[in-house]
Amino acid sequence: MDKVHVFNAGPCLLPQVVYDKAIEAIKDFKGTGVSLLSISHRTKEWEATMDETRALWKELLNIPDDYEVVFLGGGASLQFLYVAMNYLEKKAAYLETGVWAKKALKEAAGIGNAYAIASSADKNFSYIPKGYEIPKDLDYLHITTNNTIYGTEIKEDYDCPVPLIADMSSDILSRPVDVSKYELIYGGAQKNAGPAGVIFAIIKKDSLGKVSRYIPTMLDYRTHIDKGSMFNTPPVFSIYVMNETLKWVKSLGGVEAIHKIDVRKAETLYAEIDRNSLFRGTAVKEDRSIMNVCFVMAEGKEELADEFMAFAKGRGMIGIKGHRSVGGFRASLYNACTQEDVEALVKAMQDFENLKK
Question: Model pTM?
Fold first, then answer.
């Protein structure tokens, strides 16, 4: 095997330059003589890194001045609770497009009146629901823009008559986003923005402070805005790697340039899935994710699944097994995945097809 091609759904592949910078910082953070893993978050060197990371987010996504960016631990799953604690007063609706959307709704329903406004569960979450009516009296509508397990994606910024909140864990930084259409955008970093261990939250500041309940200090977004994401010790290593990842995105020409690269990768793989007699896609074409490409063996070829998995692994393919809840295959084409990686997978699929003729 000459090279491995990493398609893990998360933690994801990161650019080599980011790994290299992290290794250097672990040895000596910014010439301090102290490892990144031991640096105090109260030093001027670290505070400069926090400020720079926040500024990079604002630049790359053209975030308006009335928004703030915070970095927290706990993963996006803890943000499900943050959202409800900070925004749910009377009633909230959730667009149910997969496992993570259902989990977000469950947390909100434990706090107050929250329900699924529409769902694609009837067809195993293979599409994005459309044509539903949004009541004007909602505190917010929550959407999950990319569904990693099922390979569907919301590819536009909705014009929503109520406050819109989005979990963008797995497609942030893959396309330009009109942040002004959202009250809150949040997500785990471990897809396109860095390693596991830190979340980003892009918050419209005047959207906070409107619920009557007591919000525990650590679950109040205002706490972390006021303290610059350092109310308690932040996940220093993860934020540093996020910083270097954002610099890499900027070096390629920003999110607009990354989007073109990502679209080309996805189109290359989907074209082979549609052409190859041994495979078929699982998401409806109009809603196919450019981040997570899900597919299975074609009808009547299901018995070849294990054989193809072994064949692809022998060609250096890592992480293409589908989620345990749905099976099949999944190739995650996050930003650091290259066109070369995708073409290697396509070649493996073609060679396997020829082998079975």
Answer: 0.97
